[in-house]
Design brief:
This protein is α/β, with parallel strands linked by helices. The protein is built from four helices and 16 strands. The protein binds flavin-adenine dinucleotide (FAD).
């Protein structure tokens, strides 16, 4: 029996971290390494399927950001709107509690996004708040089908790195071009196929790849993170055509074309 479990609800402890360094991994992806004392008590389960944090991004150019406050009675008090941080969701690509470093890989998709723009501007010392982590885990899975667009590359990278060495399955990752691929380490029995392109037409090729993937015996887990319409199509395929139970699918709307985060739900 396979199960996908949500992490237990955590107290909303806000950690205020600072950018330690940034590195461009590929033309469209930037790694931001965050540090701070609070990371000594921050952890993610190794078997997490794409652990994530909520980043609280201060308004651009504000030297002293204001953070929400968790009152003694559990209520959350937000600062006034012009000093209020904006929340965005990103994957914990790598966490090293011993050096107190948290690595987050941002797709740089342009100035229209607060998260993307923050990563493009980030420089050592830039502050950011985080809540989390959040994650799901799964047990008793015979094989994995992983799929995602560029935004899911960090999550798929984390999952592959941390699956048991005898895990089996296939991963399909779509990035804009070959230059956006990254070396990934994972179980030998789990193949990785890269697809290239960015846009509506190309999303179809990721869906086609998922639909034509081998479907061996045993209990699969389908994990996907992608633009909402593609995620929906993969969800329909897994749930309706392959008749998987809800607990065998973890398929998230990572972003939605034309809509900022906060204006759509993540699916599931
Ligand atoms: C659990 C989870 C984990 C995630 N992990 C990561 C991660 O590790 N790295 C990462 O880069 N993203 C990740 N995402 C996706 C990320 O949260 C969204 O892309 C988010 O919208 C980015 O915020 P923004 O402020 O840049 O853009 P928003 O303000 O949310 O959106 C502004 C505009 O930009 C568009 N947009 C948003 N994202 C993209 C994109 N990738 N390409 C093109 N247009 C876009 C929107 O459609 C909108 O029109 C994750 C999402 C979830 C739910």
């Amino acid at each position: 029996m396979s199960r996908v479990k949500s992490a237990p609800a955590r107290k909303l402890d806000l950690l205020v971290l600072h950018v330690l360094r940034v590195r461009d991994l590929t033309p469209n992806m930037r790694r931001v390494v965050l540090g701070g004392e609070g990371l000594a008590r921050f952890d993610v389960p190794r078997n997490a399927l794409g652990p994530y944090v909520k980043l609280l991004i201060p308004p651009r150019g504000l030297d002293t950001p204001a953070w929400p406050i968790l009152e003694a009675d559990g209520r959350l008090t937000w600062p006034e709107p012009d000093r209020r941080p904006v929340m965005r969701t990103y994957t914990v690509r790598h966490l090293d509690p011993s050096t107190r470093e948290l690595h987050i890989d941002f797709v740089l998709h342009g100035d229209s996004g607060i998260g993307s723009r923050w990563a493009a501007d980030a420089a050592p010392g830039t502050p950011v708040g985080i809540w989390g982590p959040g994650c799901v885990t799964a047990q008793n899975i015979d094989w994995y089908l992983l799929a995602g667009d560029h935004t899911a590359l960090p999550a798929i990278g984390f999952i592959l790195e941390n699956l048991p060495p005898d895990a089996k399955g296939q991963a399909f990752i779509q990035v804009p071009s070959r230059a956006d691929e990254l070396p990934l380490v994972g179980p030998k029995g789990l193949s990785v196929t890269w697809l290239h392109g960015h846009g509506r037409g190309e999303a179809q090729s990721l869906l086609d790849a998922v639909r034509s993937a081998a479907w061996p015996e045993g209990r699969p887990l389908v994990w996907a993170g992608a633009e909402a319409s593609l995620a929906r199509a993969i969800r329909l395929y897994a749930r309706k055509e392959r008749r998987l139970d809800r607990d065998q699918c973890h398929i998230l709307n990572y972003w939605k074309s034309g809509a900022p985060e906060g204006s759509f739900d993540y699916g599931g």
